[in-house]
Amino acid sequence: MLHDLFPPGIQHALDLAGIFVFATSGALLAVRKNFDVFGIAVLALVTALGGGLFRDLVIGAVPPAAFGELSFFVTPLLAAAIVFFLHPEVARINRLINVLDAAGLALFCVSGTTKAYEYGLGLTASAALGVATAVGGGVLRDVLVNEVPSLLRDREMYAVPALVGAALVAVFLGMGVLTPLTSGIAVVTTFVLRLLAMRYHWRAPLAWNRRSSVAEEP
Amino acid sequence: MLHDLFPPGIQHALDLAGIFVFATSGALLAVRKNFDVFGIAVLALVTALGGGLFRDLVIGAVPPAAFGELSFFVTPLLAAAIVFFLHPEVARINRLINVLDAAGLALFCVSGTTKAYEYGLGLTASAALGVATAVGGGVLRDVLVNEVPSLLRDREMYAVPALVGAALVAVFLGMGVLTPLTSGIAVVTTFVLRLLAMRYHWRAPLAWNRRSSVAEEP
Amino acid sequence: MLHDLFPPGIQHALDLAGIFVFATSGALLAVRKNFDVFGIAVLALVTALGGGLFRDLVIGAVPPAAFGELSFFVTPLLAAAIVFFLHPEVARINRLINVLDAAGLALFCVSGTTKAYEYGLGLTASAALGVATAVGGGVLRDVLVNEVPSLLRDREMYAVPALVGAALVAVFLGMGVLTPLTSGIAVVTTFVLRLLAMRYHWRAPLAWNRRSSVAEEP
């Protein structure tokens, strides 16, 4: 199976790592919002599994991995439990969380694109769905806490590294050279681009002739 | 069929009762928000059918019952019409609505868990999807009126009774003893727990070391 | 195929026209919200494709047209690019956009109802899903920018013309007389009703005994 970019055990470990990191970001936001222990668990689950759930519904992979694979369900609950007890310590390592989140983004956009292609989508559609897999959980998280998704608001170039990574995978698939090595290149490229975007505050342009000083709509 | 916990006619009547109650809660919220008659109907439909729609998409039951069963579609419209004309009277029996909502929660989490299991999900995933069936419509309702879902915000122990009920069903399924009787026990347990949680204001804990007096994020 | 109301080339052109118009409305809202170029593209895609995506998930048309048809994906990006550079000019032709949006609403509710019926839904469910196809993208757009959907809030009779058009299609289907001609009648009826509703400010009634002067909930 193409989806197994890496030997199954390693692939599974990488998936769980991405899920864990996204779940942590959801749980920390829930603590900041003063949600109770169940709200923390729900937000951890939604953030970690929302993107993959959307992908699986679109490609018809039923039941979605989020409901078919027990470890995908337990991992966010574990992250929620850790944040519940240790949130001051976890929040303090904010920089590490951002690095891990970049790793999650990289892993999800590459594995999402690959899985979509396996299920028969075209190259462009696969790359688009790979990006949606990577950013979808965060969008759901922000909608649930009643905020404009940071994806739309932050101008942080969150989506661009995912776009590049997914496009790389699509190119490799089109050329018939997607291997664990080239997949790894796509993951690392995405990861490094995201770290650079954060480090140097790369910002995407606003609409032409629109100064960022323009007052936002209330 | 397992899904028919009770003789088909009774099962169907119970489903319709749950749908009616949830639709009423959505329609009342729409009136409070000053929505027009169509907004009231939309919010009634979404609240009543959203949870089951999500469940059916996840398990691949296409078309979902919300679109396959005419009475499931007409019942929320009936509830919307009643609220449209009689909303002051309906709102006055707020306590009764809360009791009925507890009944809807109990019925939906038990029938949702059972249906998910029938479609091949594991026991844990079935219970999780049963809870999602029971609370999903209310989450969609709150997102549409631009509020943080009361599930996350209220600390009202809304999810816990559903969790207990769904877990009971999963245990009965695992032991091979799910019958109308044991299903009824799960429904009644959920219902009573929810009533007790409301009566005695049971509250779920906030994150460790976080006092509820801490100012919420703006 | 019923879905081809018109010769395939014309049907496809009409679909693309509807997608283009809805994408433009999403992109303009993103500019007003000061989103960057990626936010503009995302909101254009979601607004244009969200309704059809929902319809296709409900009827089990996997992968959804949004991910199976490259031109459906490229058109919103083109609209986003035009808005990115020319938004003051585009916004100035606001009246034209409203007319085009009415055309998109008309096309989507008719083709959505027809496609749902083709996939085996009943007449009522098909009409309901046709309306959801027509209004769904706008609802998602508003949820993402953290506003109560204008569908619920505006009392602008946005849904009513779509309801009438979808009901007409259902009647024609039930009588076995759905042809390009009768489909065209449904499209034109929806379009004209929507224009009249805008021109004469038709407003839907609030709940009985509830004056529009009542202060809205904060």
Describe how the helices and strands are arranged.
Three copies of one chain form a homotrimer.
Chain A: H1 8-32, H2 37-59, H3 65-68, H4 70-92, H5 94-118, H6 123-144, H7 150-153, H8 159-175, H9 180-199
Helix pairs in contact in A: 1-2, 1-4, 1-5, 2-4, 2-6, 5-6, 5-8, 5-9, 6-8, 8-9
Question: Briefly, what is this?
Answer:
The structure is a homotrimer of 218-residue chains. By secondary structure, chain A is mainly alpha-helical. Chain A has nine helices and no strands.
Which regions of chain A are unreliable across 5 or more consecutive residues at pLDDT < 50?
212-218
**Quaternary structure:** homotrimer
Residue-averaged pLDDT of chain A = 87
What sequence of helices (H) and strands (E) makes up the elements of chain A? HHHHHHHHH
Q: Structural class of the secondary elements of chain A? A: mainly alpha
How far is it from the N-terminal to the C-terminal residue of chain A, by CA? Answer: 50 Å
Beta-strand content estimate of chain A: under 5%
Number of helices of chain A: 9
Task: Provide structural commentary.
- The structure is a homotrimer of 218-residue chains.
- The longest helix of chain A is centred in the N-terminal third of the chain and has 25 residues, at 8-32.
- Chain A has nine helices and no strands.
- In chain A, helix 2 runs antiparallel to helix 6.
- Chain A has one domain (8-199).
- The first copy, chain A, is globular, with a radius of gyration of 17 Å.
- By secondary structure, the first copy, chain A, is mainly alpha-helical.
- The first copy, chain A, has helices at residues 8-32, 37-59, 65-68, 70-92, 94-118, 123-144, 150-153, 159-175, 180-199.
- Chains in contact: A-B, A-C, B-C.
- The A-B interface holds A 30-40, 42-43, 53, 57, 60, 62-64, 67-68, 70, 73, 83-88, 143-146 and B 57-60, 116, 119-122, 124-125, 128-129, 139, 143, 146-149, 151-153, 155, 159-160, 203-210, 212, 214, 216-217.
